Amino acid sequence: MNESVRTRHAARGFSMVELLVTVILAGIIFAAMVPVFASALKKTSQDNFRVTATNIAQDRIEKIRMLDFLDITTDNLNDPNFADNEFGTSFVTVSGKSYNVESILVVDPVSSSPKYKTVKVKVSWGAGASDIPAVGTVVMNPEPGTVGSSPTPTAIPSPGSTTGTNYTLVVSVTDDDVDHSYGVRVVRTDISPRTTPPPTMQIPDATSGLTCSWTNLIGGPDVHYLITIKFTPPGYSSLTLTKDVPLIDSTSVYFDTNPYQ
User: Fold this and answer.
1) Are residues 124 and 66 in the same domain?
2) DSSP 47-106
3) What is the pLDDT of residue 212?
4) Looking at the structure, do residues 57 and 134 belong to the same domain, yes or no?
5) What range defines the domain where residue 27 resides?
6) Cβ(187)–Cβ(66) under 8 Å?
7) Backbone dihedral angles phi then psi of residue 101, each to the nearest 5 degrees
8) Does a structural domain hold residue 129?
9) Which residues of 95-110 are buried (b: 16+ CB within 10 A; e: fewer)?
10) Phi and psi (nearest 5°) for 100?
11) Domain count, the chain
12) What is the mean pLDDT of the chain?
């Protein structure tokens, strides 16, 4: 008899009270989990902000290292009108997030002709401690003790067993979104002042097969060229990418802009 009663009770399923209790318990559990999800999303957003801020700081450092030694001043490094508008104290991403960029110059030792300059770049994106540790670099004076409008260039290596003058540097891109006012630029960085091989700027667009090239370049194990590309993918503000290339032989360099699509 008892077994029959239990069988009929089981066949009826859950009662309304049981379902109501289950719903209430589930609601309490979900409500308790909401702060956890919110905290995880906030942490992810902050991590994304830090990555972007670090990229901005590294990009600014690369641009600073391209400058002539005497042009590296506090005023220039925080002037949005200096060097083709490549410097300034603000940077806005496509999502509308605004970052503050501060370049701090330390001349050591302090003199009219310092041996080197230390530059630190700080990037923040809000109030409080929402910033990254300062990214720094040291720029050596190629000719300490001299006074002039620009440092005296070091000797250009002569062609020989380790150097040559017939190397080619080919730069290609993923999409036809290169900024036509800036394009792709190449600067030789192992001598001072840094030199720009002709042409000063090229645009790898659809008509050129998304490639451009510099020919008859000096190359060798210690010869470096810094490639800078400025492009504007759909929905983004203008972005800048750089690559430092040792020109040991004729070299092809590829910039993938697909991650920004």
Assistant:
1) yes
2) HHHHHHHHHHHHHHHHHHHTS-GGG--HHHHT-TTSTTTT--SEEE-TT--EEEEEEEEE
3) 93
4) yes
5) 16-150
6) yes
7) -120, 125
8) yes
9) eeeebebbbebebeee
10) -100, 130
11) 2
12) 74
